[in-house]
C-alpha cells in the first residue's frame, strides 16, 4: 500500500519573522527556510509505517517554487522513496494546494495521505481537511497515534480536553500533531543517496488545476506590541502590585 | 442573508467558545442562526436559544452526530450551507477539523482563527505564530471562518431564539467514534479561566510540576497550563499546552513559572491582561512581555508567593 506525504517549505522554526515595511507580507529574502516541522512528523510517520510493513512505498509531494526541491530532497534523505513537485511561482492558498495534491493523489492512488496539521507560516490548519473533502475520504486530524489494520486506521487524536480515538476507513487522510513521533535526522550517506532518487515535476496546468487565490491580503502588520514591564525585587512586592496596581487578584 | 454559527457542545451544554463566535457572527450581519448537530441534544439546543443575539436555533439530532465526527458534521452543515452568507465555527479542535472540509466542498476559501471582523468580507487573523497580523478579504460568495475566542467578548445570555428541527443527514459511513479520554480536573478549563498558572521546563519533573504549581493554582482558583517543553518532557499531558499549536488563552492574569518564553509559547498567551513571570534567568524572553517579573529560584519563590497570598 502506498502512502503520500505532503511537505511545505517554510521559514525555519527558529527564525523570528519580520514584517516588511510596506505591509505586504513577511520578509523572506535571505531567511533560512526549512521543512515545516509538522510535515517532518508526517514524513516520519509514513516511514515508520513502511518499516513496520504496513506501507510499501512513501511518495513525498510539495507545491511551490523550484526551491521546494530542497524540501523534497530532505524528505527523500529521511527515507521517502520518490518525490513529486508541483512547480509554480504563483501564490498558493490552502484550497489550491489541496486541489493540486488531490490531482497528484488521482495519479498515484495512495491508500493513506499524511500531512502536518498546520504550516507554521500561515497557521491555516486547512490543507489536510480540504484534501480529504475533495477526495471524499475520511479524516483524522491532530493525530498522536496511528495504527493500520484490516483496511482501517485507528487514530488517537489530540482534542481540547484530552484524547479521542476514531476509526477511519482507508483510503484516509491523517494530519499529524506534535506528539505523533520524533522525526529522524537525515544521515550524510542518506543525503547522498537522496540525490539519486526520482523527483518528478508537474505544473498546475499539467494537472488541470485552477490555483487562483480566493483571499486577497490587504495588509500585514506587526501585532500590537506588549511592552516589558518591571522586575520586582520580591514576592511581597509582586502580590502588592497585583492587588493594588493591576487589580487582578 | 443570515449568518450561521456551528455550536460547540457536548449534547447537554453549549461550550464557551460558541458565545464568542456568536459575537463575531453578529459583526458579519444581523440575523444569526446557530446549528446544534448532535444526539439527544435538546438541552444544548435550549442553551443555544438562550444566547443573546441569536434569532434561530437549528437542531439536527441523530446517533451518528453524537460525537462530532468530521465527515458527518460537515455533511450536516453542507445540507444547509447555501442559505447563508457566512458560516462560523469556534476555532476549537472540532471547529478546525470541520470548517475546511465544509469550505472545500463549497469550493470557497476558509479563513482561520479570525480575531477581528473589519467588514462582511474582511477579517484580521494572526500568522507566523502571531508575529504578524494579516488583514484578508474574501472574494467567495460564502465566507467560512473559524473564530479565535480570545478576539471577541462572549455573547450574553438571556435571549429567546426559536428552535427548529432540521432533517439529519445520513451517516456518511466513513468513520466511527471509539472513545474519549478527557482529563478530569476540579480546576477551571484553560480556555475559560480568569487566572492561569503555567509551568515550563524549569520545574524539572512531573512531580515538581504538580507539587509546586497545584497549591498555587488552588490558592488562586486558577487553571493549570504548560509550555510545550513541559509537555514534551512528560510533566503533564498535551491538553495543558499553551502556545501556537496548543491552546490560545487570554486570562486576566497569566503566571508563567519556569517558562523561558519561546515565540511559540508567547503566541498562545500574549493577549493576557496581566502577565507575571518567575524565572531564574533574567535574560529569559518571557520578561520582555511580562508586566511583572521576579528573578529567582521558583522552588523558593512559589511557596513564598503562596504564603504571601495567604496572609493577604
Write a concise keyword list for the protein shown above.
A: alpha/beta; two-stranded antiparallel sheet; B: 312 residues; alpha/beta; seven-stranded parallel β-sheet; five-stranded parallel β-sheet; 8 helices
Would you spell out the secondary-structure blueprint of this structure?
The complex is a heterodimer of chains A (249) and B (312).
Chain A lengths: L1 E5 L2 E3 L21 E3 L1 H15 L5 E8 L3 H11 L3 E6 L6 H15 L3 E5 L10 H9 L3 E11 L2 E8 L2 E8 L2 E5 L11 H7 L4 E4 L1 H4 L7 E7 L8 E2 L3 H10 L5
Parallel strand pairs in A: 1-4, 1-6, 4-5, 5-11, 6-10, 7-10
Antiparallel strand pairs in A: 2-3, 7-8, 8-9
Helix pairs in contact in A: 2-5, 3-4
Chain B lengths: L1 E5 L10 H12 L3 E7 L3 H8 L4 E8 L8 H12 L2 E7 L2 H14 L3 E5 L1 E4 L2 E6 L4 E7 L4 E5 L14 E4 L9 E8 L12 E5 L6 H15 L2 E4 L1 H5 L20 E5 L5 H7 L4 E6 L12 E4 L2 H14 L1
Parallel strand pairs in B: 1-2, 1-4, 2-3, 3-10, 4-9, 5-9, 12-13, 12-14, 14-15, 15-16
Antiparallel strand pairs in B: 6-7, 7-8
Largest sheet properties of chain A: 9 strands, mixed
Assembly state (oligomeric): heterodimer
What portion of residues of chain A belong to β-strands? 25-35%
Uncertain runs of chain B are none
| Cα-based radius of gyration of chain B, to the nearest Å | 21 Å
Shape of chain A: globular
Mean pLDDT of chain B: 96
Binned, the helix content of chain B reads 25-40%
Helix content of chain A: 25-40%
**Class inferred from helices and paired strands of chain B:** alpha/beta
Mean pLDDT of chain A: 97
